[in-house]
FoxI protein
Amino acid sequence: MKINKKVIIFLVAIGIIAVLFSLFIFDRSFAFSIISSQSSNYNYTYGTFTVYIYNPANGIVKKENITGIMLYIDNVDVQNLQITSISNSTFSEVPVYYVQVPVPLPNGSVINGFQRSYEIYIGYEKILIPTTGLSSGSYVIELSDGTTISVTIR
């Protein structure tokens, strides 16, 4: 029985598709690593920002001027992220950071404020990292997925 070349190519293609399909179903991290080669897209601004800081424990909203890094990040990863450190060649710390959230006011209106956070959720987030105590220079912000973001503080 003579098998045609087209039949062999067709069977090999079906086999490859079946293997990839089973990997997508049973190993979602493999599937997402193929779909997304980078876990987050980002941009930042350094300056002094007038923001509302919200404390959900007591419901207090305070308007404050905070000097720091406003980080705009689009987390397209399959999990939440954390900011694990901000560092340069001689310094490293785990920074306090705030994520922008809708804040309810006593009169019933809602404003955009910032709430202390311990993780960056999936999707677009606006994050404020206060930089009081840091001297001018270049720093690296490291995320829990290994992403590093180079920033300059003036």
